[in-house]
Amino acid sequence: MTALHDPNVLPAELPAPQDDGAARHLAGMRLPSLALAATDGSQVDLSQLPGRTVVYVYPRTGVPGQPLPEGWNDIPGARGCTPQSCGFRDHFGELKRLGIARVLGLSTQDSAYQREAVERLHLPFPVLSDERLALARALDLPTFTASGMTLLKRMALIIDEGVISKVFYPVFPPDKNAEEVIAWLRNQQNS
């Protein structure tokens, strides 16, 4: 029987993802022009966004009280989407003060599913849906398969005027991802 879970809590001793090199090609890439559905009802073309954007990428958010996909906690880097999202929520103001024009989440879940998470977690930014894997294919983003679903591996991207300038991959622990981005931004300001 699959155990129910609390998506806000990271269990101890989760397996850490290893850097498999699957994101090495991303830094310096220009984003393709394609529209992704956002939880606020808009269509977002990452290639056209002015300024500096943080896009944190995650496999899928869980629903409290619902079972996880089979073996989820054993997949390195799979668990922790809710804590990662909450980290960016909690550090949203600081990210803005450090020059981030916008924060966006990205997963392969549909917008209706994502809207529930945005509302439940009180996220002050939209989440984008790559349900058809258009962006994942165009950028050759790292993915994995669980319970028959193709999911994005966790990472964060800094995008400047449509070009990926920094890639955080692999991300572990996921609840510290926003802090890692902030540390990098501060280092950039001081150098």
Coarse shape: globular
Radius of gyration: 16 Å
- What is the terminal-to-terminal distance? 53 Å
Kindly report the average pLDDT value. Answer: 94
Beta-strand content estimate: 15-25%
Give a structural overview.
The chain is α+β, with helices and mostly antiparallel strands. The chain has one domain (about 35-65, about 80-190): 3-Layer(aba) Sandwich (Glutaredoxin). The protein contains five helices and nine strands, in the order E-E-E-H-H-E-H-E-H-E-E-E-E-H. The chain has helices spanning about 80-90, 90-95, 110-120, 135-140, 175-190, and strands at about 35-40, 45, 50-55, 100-105, 125-130, 145, 150, 155-160, 165-170. The strands form two sheets. The chain has a seven-stranded mixed β-sheet with strand order 2-1-5-4-3-8-9. Strands 6-7 form a two-stranded antiparallel ribbon. The longest helix is centred in the C-terminal third of the chain and has 14 residues, at about 175-190. The chain is globular and about 40 Å long.
